[in-house]
Every structure is written in C-alpha cells, then in structure tokens.
C-alpha cells in the first residue's frame, strides 16, 4: 500500500507524531550529524547520511544491563517509550535488519519492538556509497519517495500504516527505484583472494584506530564492564562498544591474541562483512554506506582493493598442482 503527502505538509505530519511518540531524527551538533531526540521538525538536519549511525539508539554506549546489590542481581530494562526513528536511508534500514539477526538481549529487543522505522529515499548519491552492490532489501515501516511536489509513502507494516492512516491512498502504486551509486563492489570469487599479496598495501596504512568499526552501523560487538557505584554497595554491568580491529579484542588468558597481526584483523573485518556473515545468515553484513571509507584517517579503500583483484587476478603458485596438470595432459 502507498499513500501520498504534499511535501509542504511534512512538518505538520511530524508535529502530530511528536504529540504521541518520541522522535529520533538526524541533527547536527558540533559539526557532527547523528540521530537524536527532537521536539520540533525544525531541528531535523537534512543530510544524505549521518556521520554517526542509528545503532546508538538501540545500543547506547555505557548502557546498564545488570545491577548487583545485597547479593541480588536485577536486570535493568529501563523505561522504553514508543519511538519513531525518522530519516533513515535504505542502507541504514538494512543495517538494522542485519543487527536484528544477531542481537537477542531484552534491552535491544524491547527498543526494536517499540521503534517505528521511517526511511527516506536518497535523491543524490554519496561518493563513498556502494549500497547497490550489497543486496539491500525493502525493510521499513514507512518509506518516503519524493516525486515532484509530493512524497509517495510506501507502507511496510501495521505500525507504519497507523502513522499515516489519515492520508489519501495512491490509486496506482509506483515502483520505487534503488538509489544511484558512484561506487561498486565486485565480490565475485572474493574467497580466493584471501591470501592475495595486494592486501598488504592497505594493511600498511592501517593504524588500528578502530574508527571503521565505531562508525559502522552493523558492527555490534561489545564488552561488559563491572563498575562500582560511589555508594560502594552497588555494582553495575554496563555495555560498551568493542572492536575486532583492536589487538586486545581477541586477547585471552595467558596473553595470547588469536589475531595478533594487523593483517589478520583487517582481513577478518572485510571478509566478515562481505562473506562470512552471508554464509551464516544469507545476506552480506556490509550495507554499502561507505562510512568506514569516509572516516578512515589514512584513506584506506578496501572496496577499490577488491575491485582491482577482480580486474587483475594474480596467479597463486602456492595453490598450483603440477600433479593435476600432468593428469590433465594425459
């Protein structure tokens, strides 16, 4: 089902939502765009893609999960209001779908159940975006597509339908195209390039600063730290974001790190995004937003590296079998 709305009436629609829901939308603070609660549609920052993704709404840094006091442990779920997450692009909508496949704790699930996802079509492509290469799906409660003076609103759920039930229905539905991209990622036969020597050029530039995972909307690894309150009687278990690009991420007792080298960490990050997760869950973990490319201080472009490998594959003598060659020539 699709509804229609005059663009000039969008702010009025948002105002009606604010009366019943908590609205989380893109805002700009200190030159950084992020999703944050708004009290007026005038606070919304019209940007192609926020710097900080929407995962902070579902997994806020330092969130308290458990509280230990007087030999009792209490699960902290918090008060969760009905929320509209507004202004999500197709890549960020798919990022939420990806994280839904792996996050099962009560805090996350309760936030998801109480959050309505409202997406917006990307009219102008971002120079780092390659979302069309990552098998994106239609995943939303509402999705706004601009057409002339109007917005065509696609409805993806009952939650979404409730928000626009008073709007007129479109007589003939239209097919919404995929956003355009400047970049493409060719993942064909990527598995055979794991040992390719050309990864070294990217690895040499990597600082293990973890910016790529911090800004990635699908990176969801975390540590739990036990922090003692000032009353010295209460201990809180808090969740903090972690990163597989850090040397300490795979550190175990005895001082052994299973991914001690930057090379192993870098390749794991890339292959988990485009290959391993797809084998396990049926779709790539990467949603092609390009944030990791944008924030990298040394401008590593692993997308370009993979494309080069596919254009000019190097012969790998270590896998060459002279025995098979002799058998073929018989």
Strand content: 15-25%
Q: Give the mean pLDDT.
A: 91
Low-confidence stretches: 317-330
The SS-based structural class is: alpha/beta
Rg of Cα set: 23 Å
Q: The biggest beta sheet, please?
A: 7 strands, mixed
Order of helices and strands: EHEEHEEEHHEEEHHHEEHHHH
Strand order of the largest sheet: 1-9-8-7-6-2-3
* Percent range of helical residues: 25-40%
Compact description:
Helix content is 28%, strand content 21%.
How does this model look, in words?
By secondary structure, the protein is an alpha/beta fold. It has two domains: 2-163, no CATH class; 190-313, no CATH class. Helices cover 28% and strands 21% of the residues. The chain is built from eleven helices and eleven strands. Strands 1-9-8-7-6-2-3 form a seven-stranded mixed β-sheet. Strands 5-4-11-10 form a four-stranded antiparallel β-sheet, with no helix packed on it. Strand 4 and strand 5 form a beta hairpin.
């Amino acid at each position: 089902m699709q509804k229609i709305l005059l663009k000039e009436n969008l702010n009025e629609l948002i105002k009606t939502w604010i009366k019943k829901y908590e609205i989380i939308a893109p805002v700009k603070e200190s030159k950084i765009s992020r999703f944050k609660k708004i009290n007026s549609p005038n606070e919304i920052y019209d940007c192609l893609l926020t710097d900080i993704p929407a995962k902070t709404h579902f997994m806020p840094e330092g969130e308290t999960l458990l509280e230990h006091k007087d030999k009792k442990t209490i699960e902290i779920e918090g008060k969760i209001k009905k929320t509209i997450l507004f202004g999500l692009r197709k890549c960020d909508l798919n990022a939420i779908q990806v994280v839904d496949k792996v996050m099962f704790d009560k805090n996350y699930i309760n936030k998801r159940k109480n959050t309505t996802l409202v997406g917006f079509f990307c009219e102008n492509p971002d120079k780092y975006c390659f979302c069309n290469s990552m098998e994106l799906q239609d995943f939303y409660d509402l999705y706004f597509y601009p057409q002339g003076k109007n917005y065509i609103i696609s409805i993806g759920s009952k939650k979404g339908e409730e928000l626009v039930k008073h709007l007129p229905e479109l007589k003939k539905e239209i097919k919404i195209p995929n956003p355009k991209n400047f970049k493409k990622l060719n993942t064909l036969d990527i598995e055979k390039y794991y040992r390719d020597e050309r990864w070294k050029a990217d690895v040499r530039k990597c600082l293990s600063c973890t910016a790529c995972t911090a800004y990635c909307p699908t990176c969801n690894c975390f540590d739990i730290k036990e922090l003692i309150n000032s009353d010295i009687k209460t201990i809180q278990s808090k969740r903090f974001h972690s990163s597989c690009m850090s040397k300490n991420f795979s550190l175990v007792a005895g001082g052994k790190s299973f991914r001690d080298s930057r090379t192993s960490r870098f390749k794991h990050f890339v292959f988990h995004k485009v290959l391993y997760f797809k084998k396990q869950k049926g779709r790539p973990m990467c949603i092609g937003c390009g944030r990791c490319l944008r924030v990298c201080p040394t401008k590593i472009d692993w997308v370009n590296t993979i494309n080069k490998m596919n254009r000019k594959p190097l012969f790998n003598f270590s896998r060459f079998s002279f025995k098979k060659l002799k058998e073929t020539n018989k």
